[in-house]
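User: Predict the complex.
Assistant: Input components as received:
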Amino acid sequence: MADLIPHLGSLFFGGNPYGAQDTFAEAFVLLHRDGAGDDTLAWRTAQGHWEYVVQRCLDSDAVDPHAVGEEAIRQAVIAALEVLQRLVRGGRCPRCPAHATRSQDTMSNRGGA
Amino acid sequence: MAATGSARDGSFHALCIELLSTSDDVADRRQVAADALVITAAVGRRQGRVLRPQDLHFGGADLSGADLHAGVNLRGATFDAANLSGANLTGLDLRNASLDAADLRGAVLDRAWLSGANLANADLRGARLQGTDLRGAILDGARLPRGVSMKGGTSPASSLDDPTFSVADLMRLAGPDAEARAEPAPPAPDVPHRGGSGSPRRPTVLIVDDEADLREIMRRMLQRRGFDALVAGDPAQAISLCRDHPGPIDLVVTDLTLPDMSGSDLLREVAVLRSSVRVVYVSGLPRDLAVAKGLINRDAPFLKKPFTADSLAEVMWTALAEEQWVH
């Protein structure tokens, strides 16, 4: 099912079907950038944490019990975005132990991994 | 992971709490639960569903300006002393919820279900209550907005008939509908005809307050508790009544802050006309502040708003304690 979860890169631009804020994907990836500024690793780590949260939402009552397939994923993504967008604004990722705050950094590779 | 319609029994609200939490501190946890509630409500609205939070304890949390309408079921939740000022609670199911001393100033409660809820000491000034179901709600000591229209809603009939109902600012809600339900006022079973044997004379009290609805509800409440009541909206009217009323006036209940003069200045004028009259001052100011401002003496009979009808009656009976109310 993880392959049905949208890649963070698909949320990068406006007009995505989940209503993600334009700045969300970039800000979320920036939270995972290590000291050396390895953007590839940042994208990979962020994608893993993103999928974790979406999967947890998928197992919750945020998704209609009768929803299946893409509709279930859509509902889970919407729920995950509601949580993560709030956390990212505070410079936090719920999967990162230190909840690193790097939102002041700039992104050199917007395409990511 | 359940992706094909299998049971999704995990609570999204609990998941949000888990993801938002950074400490085990109880106060922090309540705020986290409140933050998670806002997210849960947003998801419920977007999904067109009503979610039930797992943790229903939000006491003391800051939910000011939160948008909680249509998305969560909060029946039986606890919001004691929470800050819900400016929150959008439209249509919410808050039946039997506890909102004791909650700050609900400016909150939108239109069509919300608050039957059986505890709103004691809650501050609802400026709140919108169109169509709100308040049947059986506990409103003792609460403060409701001026001029609240109960049109289309359910009047708090059981509360209006409840002898413990507050006579404080809350009673300003008493519109035509509420009045109709509250009258005729049945005599309270424990009306305190104090004074011993023989046929008791009901003491006569003059209520002086420039707020008409509060004045009127005080009159009704005191009549239920064994007083005959006269009302005046300003010092001039009060003085006229003291001069022209044919019967006795035993006690004056007056707001400390009146148009043109203070309550204590009024009492000095009244005492010229009715030398034996007693007084009870009421005010939104704390006693210490009223004393510091020179409005009353430290030992003057005084009651701070908001107050209950019972507490007002008790202060009045105490002020009258040395008098015999039997002819």
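The CA atoms of residues 147 and 216 of chain B lie 14 Å apart.
Let me know if you want any component modeled separately.
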